[in-house]
Amino acid sequence: xxxxxxxxxxxRAVAALFVAAAxxxxxxxxxxxxxxxxxxxxxxxxxRVVRQIGEQLGPGAELRxxxxxxxxxxxxxxxxxxxxxxxxxxxxxxRILFSDDPLPxxxxxxxxxxxxxxxxxxxxxxxxx
Length: 129
Fold this sequence. Notes:
By secondary structure, the protein is an alpha+beta fold. The protein has helices at residues 10-35, 45-57, 104-114; strands at residues 62-68, 74-79, 86-92, 95-98.
């Protein structure tokens, strides 16, 4: 009686199983990469400031001026209401502080760390001396 041919030797059988497993893993990986949810790119600083101001002060707030600070910080002025007095702010990715908040020391430290030239008076200029 003749034996059915499956694999001529045991080492070839083991090698064929490893190849089949590797091909299945590669196929599963490619399918997962093509069907997974995409990761959103990080929020730009200007969009972050507008979002933070809207969340903290509401829809009536008005961004008046913004400038890039150190690292990913943004410094500027905002009106708590349209046409209202301007208030300084410092925005970092996870926080926004305003100059009239009840944390003046923390605001000053953040200003010195992230926006060293912001909210400082210009040097006095003497003309005609």
